[in-house]
Amino acid sequence: MKKFPSLLLVCCTISLIVMIFCAGCTTSPASSHHGIHIAAQNDRAGNILALFSEHYQESTQVPVLVSQFDTWDQVQIQEYDLIIVDVTTLQRLAEQNKITPITMLSDGSLNATTFDILMLQPYTIGSDLYGLPLHPDMLGYVIWADLFTSEEEVNAFNETYGYDLGNPLTYHDLLDITEFISRPEEQRYGIGIVGSESDTVQNLYGTILYSYGRNPTDEDVQEAEAVFQRLILYTLPEYTSWTREDVTNALLQRKVQSAITWFSEFEILSSPEYNLNNAEFIFLPLPGSWNSNESFHSVSIPGGWVFAVPNRSPGESSEAIGFLKWFYQPDTQWEWMQGGMQPMLYEIQGSWEYLMANGYNAAYIISLRNQLRKTN
């Protein structure tokens, strides 16, 4: 089953649209382009932003050209006004002095209260802010809803484990639930995990580990390793080759009864275009752990896409700053949200309309806060 989020369906016609408003996405240097030239790390982020940037061109008459690359190795990023990178690349480019601190908050160009300031911590190195969030992504938990609502399932779980079946607070709760719902004799396994992407596996293990605190003890490390190894006992043997698309499809086909996957996949699970049988899911943030100091923590490790400004001569980034000001205006962010993406403005994230827009936004906000929470 091939899948695309609803917004990404539009991206299938990206070549035609980009030709209309930005003369095509190319790898030509920014010096030959009048307007704003943006380099994107992959075609997905670039396509989405290219579609959306048409509105900026319409309102300002400033052309926007988006160029897309699989790797930054051959890209002269100083030739671009803005780049879109992941968090790991952001940190590396900042250390190499290839991007410049974003001063929009400190100089008043953008009101600091526009954001939950804690949300900017993953993009802050030392005391300098090097990135602004485009579409943060994190791992979350999803489970078939009838497992939590069936009286038969609830009673059987209580009889087996001695407590009520419900949202897992800790990873040990999650393990109990996963063991209980794993039924390989019915060709239904307990959990799906994206095993083919090393960054996803590392993110999951790191999320478990650092739920014990910023400075886990040897005992905490052993406990996290044991949790991770037990968890993968309840997935399919071939999980190491599974992509995030495989996990999504396995959920829809009920080959797995729950999954730990990226929030960006939750839109697909909620979409009637792909969820053809109207399957009902419960979306939750990842659980936490009680560490050896009897302190509870729940954390998320940030992923997704970030705006950064290449380190160019003073004044050359003025058009980039103008674009960012437009992007973070409330009207723009509301439209961004209504297109299926995650808004970054504090006033929208706390709104009833946002929280009730789908079944996973509330869990997303909890996870977003957890990724920034200071641990002991």
Descriptors for this entry?
single chain; 376 residues; alpha+beta; D-Maltodextrin-Binding Protein, domain 2; 2 domains; six-stranded mixed sheet; four-stranded mixed sheet; 16 helices; 14 strands; 15% strand; globular; disordered N terminus; disordered C terminus
Structural overview:
The structure is a single chain. The chain is globular. It has helices at residues 6-11, 14-22, 43-60, 87-95, 146-149, 151-161, 171-181, 198-210, 218-231, 244-252, 266-270, 318-327, 330-338, 346-349, 352-355, 361-370; strands at 36-40, 64-68, 82-85, 99-100, 124-125, 128-129, 132-137, 139-144, 192-193, 258-262, 281-285, 289-290, 296-297, 303-310. Strands 1, 2, 3, 4, 7 and 14 form a six-stranded mixed beta sheet that branches. Strands 9-10-8-11 form a four-stranded mixed beta sheet. It has a two-stranded antiparallel ribbon with strand order 5-6. The longest helix is centred in the N-terminal third of the chain and has 18 residues, at 43-60. It is α+β, with helices and mostly antiparallel strands and 376 residues long. Residues 1-32 and 372-376 have low confidence and may be disordered. The chain folds into two domains: 7-136 and 304-370, D-Maltodextrin-Binding Protein, domain 2; 139-297, Periplasmic binding protein-like II (D-Maltodextrin-Binding Protein, domain 2).
